[in-house]
């Protein structure tokens, strides 16, 4: 995979950081993209210190002009971008009847529009070389729904529809498109925000125990699935949703 260049969004921490570091270990050059520039730079330094290749990039992933600049820098550093991991996202908790337009719009802009913008800007590189991997980090909530999370569940459900559509439209170019739907991933900013809520904290262990594999997930669990989907071995896998959730959603 030494000639492959991967862009990972939301790569400064949590799942994105784990994916960026794992793909780098597999030999790919990494664009570490995040709104938090200092943290992205730290991840890039860690990858470089471990013998990998990485460049830190900062952009609001919902803004086309900012993403265009970031992709230009990545191409100049390493070449055509043939792997995109759409991981950047936010979460939120509010009852449906109290959900404001601005909350809805912000959630869909960061979680869903960003996947559209980033992928659309990177796809010409993949088409040109006849090879590509699109990996969208969704959520098992897109499959199950969740109380007080209509905007989040909708944004993640939209990613699944986008994943399948891209698989159909670009498969003839040697490009695969798949999604990963995690659940209960520990040690991320989003999970910490979720699990520290009183209603979650009280029932967290019971929810974990309800799954066949009775532990919470780690960012590295998701990174392992992403590394496989990005590999040559997964070239005949497309339009799929890989549930990295301990069997919690079956």
Strand content: 5-15%
Q: Provide mean pLDDT, rounded.
A: 91
What gyration radius follows from the Cα positions, in whole Å?
Answer: 17 Å
Strand order of the largest sheet: 3-2-1-4-5-6-7
- Runs with pLDDT <50, length 5+? none
Tell me roughly what share of residues is in helical segments. 40-55%
- N-to-C SSE series? EHEHEHEHEHHEHHHE
Number of helices: 9
CATH class: Alpha Beta
What does this structure look like?
This protein has a single domain, classed as NAD(P)-binding Rossmann-like Domain (Rossmann fold). It is α/β, with parallel strands linked by helices and 250 residues long. Strand 4 (83-86), helix 4 and strand 5 (132-137) form a beta-alpha-beta unit. The two termini are 33 Å apart. Helix 1 crosses helix 9 (219-230), helix 3 runs parallel beside helix 4 (101-129) and helix 4 runs parallel beside helix 6. Helix content is 50%, strand content 15%. It is built from 9 helices and 7 strands; from the N terminus they run βαβαβαβαβααβαααβ. It is globular and about 50 Å long. The model has no long low-confidence stretch (mean pLDDT 91).
Topology:
Elements lengths: L4 E5 L4 H12 L3 E5 L3 H13 L3 E5 L6 H15 L4 E4 L14 H29 L2 E6 L3 H4 L5 H21 L4 E8 L6 H7 L2 H12 L9 H12 L10 E4 L6
Parallel strand pairs: 1-2, 1-4, 2-3, 4-5, 5-6, 6-7
Helix pairs in contact: 1-9, 3-4, 4-6
A few lines on this structure:
This protein is of the alpha/beta class and about 250 residues long. It has 9 helices and 7 strands.
């Amino acid at each position: 995979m030494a000639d492959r260049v991967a862009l990972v969004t939301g790569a400064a921490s949590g799942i994105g950081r784990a994916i960026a570091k794992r793909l780098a270990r597999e030999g790919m050059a990494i664009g570490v993209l995040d709104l938090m520039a200092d943290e992205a730079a730290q991840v890039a330094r860690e990858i470089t210190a471990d013998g990998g290749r990485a460049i830190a990039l900062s952009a609001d992933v919902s803004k086309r002009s900012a993403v265009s600049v970031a992709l230009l820098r990545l191409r100049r550093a390493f070449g055509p971008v043939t792997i995109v991991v759409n991981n950047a996202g936010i979460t939120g908790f509010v009852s449906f009847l109290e959900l404001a337009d601005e909350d809805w719009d912000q959630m869909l802009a960061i979680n869903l529009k960003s996947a559209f913008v980033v992928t659309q800007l990177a796809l010409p590189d993949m088409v040109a070389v006849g090879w590509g991997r699109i990996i969208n980090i969704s959520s098992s909530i897109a499959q199950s729904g969740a109380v007080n999370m209509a905007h989040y569940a909708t944004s993640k459900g939209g990613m699944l529809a986008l994943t399948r559509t891209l698989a159909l439209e670009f498969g003839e170019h040697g490009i695969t498109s798949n999604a990963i739907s995690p659940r209960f991933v520990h040690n991320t900013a989003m999970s910490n925000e979720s699990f520290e809520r009183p209603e979650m904290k009280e029932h967290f262990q019971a929810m974990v125990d309800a799954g066949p594999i009775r532990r919470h997930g780690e960012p590295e669990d998701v990174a392992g699935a992403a590394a496989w989907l990005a590999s040559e071995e997964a070239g005949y896998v497309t339009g799929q949703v890989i549930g990295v959730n301990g069997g919690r959603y079956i």
